Amino acid sequence: MIRSRRNAGIAAGVAIFLIGVTACASSESGESDSAGEEPAAAASGDMASQEGAIYEVRNYHFDPARFDEYAQIARGEYLRYLREHLDIVGFWVDSGISAEVRGAEQDELGSANITWVIRWASKAERDEKLPQVLGTPEWREIFAEVPGGGASYLRVESRFMESLY
């Protein structure tokens, strides 16, 4: 129970850190969507300020032997499609710098090597919209390019967080 709470606390801290880093980087650089359009969240109102907004933190343990191929593909069509249809807060891939882990040992998969965060107005919105977005023929065509196919995803974890600020 204590380990579970500690892990949840660590995960919450990491999620908040990643969200904050992305928000700061975007505002400092004046970045906008590459197509010149507002992200999905901006079009429907600022979800960050809405009561009940949640952040889905998706961690992937992708086959390390195929990771570099994945990272190249993800930078292209994956991100274009996902940003077009979802309010992506950030999408990160492993930098090659060793993880710093304290406390209990990790399992054989180690740390996730891909993490992305999606902002949702609610869990109900996520449960309705995500299957629609990932169920289109366009996404299936993009996903078909995954090096090694679906078997390359050794573990996928989704956590649902809320912002403290």
Secondary structure layout plus pairing:
Blueprint lengths: L1 H28 L10 H4 L10 E9 L4 H19 L2 E6 L20 E7 L2 H11 L3 H7 L9 E9 L4
Strand content: 15-25%
Q: Tell me the series of helices and strands, N- to C-terminal.
A: HHEHEEHHE
Largest sheet: spatial strand order: 2-3-1-4
Overall outline: globular
Distance between the termini: 27 Å
State the secondary-structure class: alpha+beta
Low-confidence stretches: 1-48
Give the fraction of residues assigned to helices.
Answer: 40-55%
Output mean pLDDT.
77
Total number of β-strand segments?
4
Q: What would you say this structure looks like, in words?
A:
The chain is an alpha+beta fold and 165 residues long. The chain has five helices and four strands. The chain has helices spanning 2-29, 40-43, 67-85, 123-133, 137-143, and strands at 54-62, 88-93, 114-120, 153-161. The protein has a four-stranded antiparallel sheet, with helices on both faces. It is globular, with a radius of gyration of 16 Å. The relative contact order is 0.22.
